[in-house]
């Protein structure tokens, strides 16, 4: 890992996307209506799911199918979606937004957020047990994952139940200090430039992010994130508890042997502000004074996430029994450590899971990691998806098989490399050209009527 290696700053695991949230059904020539199916490949976080759901008409239904590169990312997506579905009666809008953004973009969180995370992890561990053949909640479905993948999810959730520690490669419980893991990544990325890191941070935000249109990202907040990994500090509190959802294993070669090392292996350059914090429909949040933005990317992230949550409340359509409410309250008050001991024994976790909002007509299904090339083999997915999204890290998986599973009027949306800051201008343009070549080889052509957007490129099936 050298400072000069292209895209090393982006890391080898995608905890958040490198583009703003998009309503994927509003990107093509015709907006599909009725029952709509979308395939997300490597999106990394649920930003597109939330944004697309917010744009739905009441009569529409949306089924999102998700394929990721690792079970750690699947686990985090489930966690963030779980928090999204928490009813307003259980967690106020402001608190819910704060917890969501803390878990989403902070390497270290407040102790109370870590406790909430542990409780949620205990609920999720029950939802993925291999003894369940039907989805525990109508909006979240992991039943199509392989047994070994569900076992891996269970292992991850159990590790999250103890947010102050993490399992080492030897299988023993050993504390992982995120501050050290983060600093290790920064040192390895900058190399000899580490001693002048503040200058490197300043160059990346001033000459790269700001020049790419992200002037709303505040320099002080960006510096803090680059230094400590804390992007969202929304109230007075101590942000010193490791966020276990941002820890993962990476395999290295040492003297001919493969060694798995637990640490932080995600983005340390582009920032989690990109997903929710650089675009907004509220023009007042983009006002400037003396050439400086009054509001920050954190302010915009809070506003956008709150607006998305509020739009979901209108689709809520579940009712729960009084018994469920009482037992759910009991589960919320319990200590995460006691949950760990009783997670496989007590039925109250099913009640608590059913206490989540049921968004009418909305469902998210997670597919096996290796399922993309296998979908065409199943009749169910023949010309099935109305929209398909590929992240910048998964473009290489795009192939001719896509035409077999894409609907005749489907749109293909591909994330570009604009916000991979380690790439220079020529490399960024070269990547965009390569995306067009790959898509055309797969049977798609650029949709030239799409709004100019150098963050994504939109394709439609080639005309015969």
TrEMBL record:
Domain DUF4470 as annotated: residue spans: 15-108
Keyword line: Cilium biogenesis/degradation, Cytoplasm
Chain's role: Required for the assembly of axonemal inner and outer dynein arms. Involved in preassembly of dyneins into complexes before their transport into cilia.
Residue stretches making up the Dynein assembly factor 3 C-terminal domain: 140-448
Name of the featured protein: Dynein axonemal assembly factor 3
Record-linked InterPro entries: DNAAF3 (IPR039304), DNAAF3_C (IPR028235), DUF4470 (IPR027974)
Top-level lineage group: Eukaryota
GO BP annotations listed: axonemal dynein complex assembly; motile cilium assembly
Species for this entry: Sphaeramia orbicularis (orbiculate cardinalfish)
Lineage: Eukaryota, Metazoa, Chordata, Craniata, Vertebrata
UniProt-annotated location(s): Dynein axonemal particle
